[in-house]
Task: inverse folding
DNA sequence: TGTTTATATGACTACCTGGTCACATGATAA
DNA sequence: TTATCATGTGACCAGGTAGTCATATAAACA
């Protein structure tokens, strides 16, 4: 995860009272989440906030800077919720427990910040997003950076199959987790798991089934040599 | 998969020569693939085609109808490439071979029709797409309809673990396949598998590793009871 | 030939966008 | 009080959009 700031609001913005700043930040997230980057309308935002268009440009340089600022808040939120691997996470025999912990953090994140999650989905698949590759890999690399070393350690200790390369392990966990969370967040993507209702208990049960299946495989009794 | 047509072009369009019709269809796919639905510009399309704006509206009712028409062509293409389960596909001990066949069909589809695949990705994640839920579930349900019965049969015969429900089996295969194909199609989504180069041979090798891992699990030697 | 019917055209409308700028407001300092 | 400076304002601009419609063209038919 690169430390550099993506975008800095003007001093004027930082001088605002926290209340007003948060009101503006929230309105911006909501708009970008609902409409994506390109279609998001700053006219809309200022209208809903009851401030003048010019004010927004006293706070930020342009639309791109606004988007990057909002996206950076998303990555900060994710990092603060998932954190770095703890000492317990690093014990190789805790590997699947750690997977479960991070996965659950994802569920909680969506419950707490649905708009920010939607913002991320939009960034993932919309074209012409400013510095798109950079901001997406900030999030995607996070997964590899987090799970990669843990998986490598677990594999060395025999907790993971030696014939599956670490990148494939991370890929599969990430793919299952991502798709699961997308289904959880957006009902019509639901694939028959019926997570739509956003019933946290049911979601966790589904998650556990999937993690077990990742660990033990889908195949029948006999293992290949 | 519902049979109803999503959108019908006007008679005028159907009266065109095949050459002109295809030229127009291709230009439309390219535009929607590159820009998504909302930002796609019909002005752009007619300019690049060298026809008049009015002509487009002689062929279709409006932008929505145009998009739905193009998307329907995508679903038709997918269906024609994957087809229905063959007799061989239905043999329970051929389950993983069938997974491999469909997965490979996905790779070939992306190689042959990259714009159509991009169109699908846009539809997946853009907001305010006409009849979005309907058209997405048309594609997603396809996976369940195709693999569901095969998985159920394989599970009954002991080819799949009895403690993993069929929807979970389909979910995991679909999630891995989808994410793999997304990485294959779009380099910056690559998660360390290095499929970016679109090297078909390497892609198939990666696919095989993932399928094996789906089948046998990521966990170490010992199985849970 | 003249007449009807189908298709092609592009100027036009109403509306939206991001961004600008001359000016208004209010607070602080001299 | 007056002067200075940060902040707030909204009319305005250039440029884009989807969609319309009167008119031109061409083809088919009488």
Result:
């Amino acid at each position: 995860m690169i430390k550099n700031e993506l975008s800095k609001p003007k001093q004027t913005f930082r001088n605002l009272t926290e209340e007003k700043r948060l009101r503006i930040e929230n309105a911006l997230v909501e708009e970008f989440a609902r409409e994506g980057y390109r279609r998001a309308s700053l006219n809309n935002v200022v209208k809903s906030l009851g401030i003048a268009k010019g004010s927004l440009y006293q706070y930020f340089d342009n639309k791109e800077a606004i988007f990057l600022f909002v996206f950076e808040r998303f990555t900060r939120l994710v990092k603060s919720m998932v954190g770095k691997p703890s000492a317990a996470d690093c014990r190789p025999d805790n590997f699947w427990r750690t997977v479960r912990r991070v996965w659950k953090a994802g569920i909680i994140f969506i419950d707490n910040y649905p708009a920010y999650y939607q913002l991320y989905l939009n960034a993932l698949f919309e074209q012409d997003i400013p510095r798109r590759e950079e901001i997406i890999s900030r999030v995607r690399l996070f997964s590899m950076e987090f799970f990669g070393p843990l998986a490598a350690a677990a594999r060395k200790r025999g907790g993971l199959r030696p014939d599956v390369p670490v990148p494939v392990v991370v890929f599969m966990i990430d793919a299952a987790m991502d798709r699961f969370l997308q289904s959880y967040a957006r009902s019509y993507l639901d694939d028959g798991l019926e997570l739509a209702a956003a019933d946290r208990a049911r979601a966790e049960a589904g998650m556990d089934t999937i993690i077990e299946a990742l660990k033990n495989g889908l195949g029948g009794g006999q293992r290949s040599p």
Summary: The mean pLDDT of chain B is 90. Chain B is about 70% helix and 0% strand. Residues 41-43, 53-54, 57, 62-63 of chain B lie near DNA strand D (CB under 10 Å from a C1').
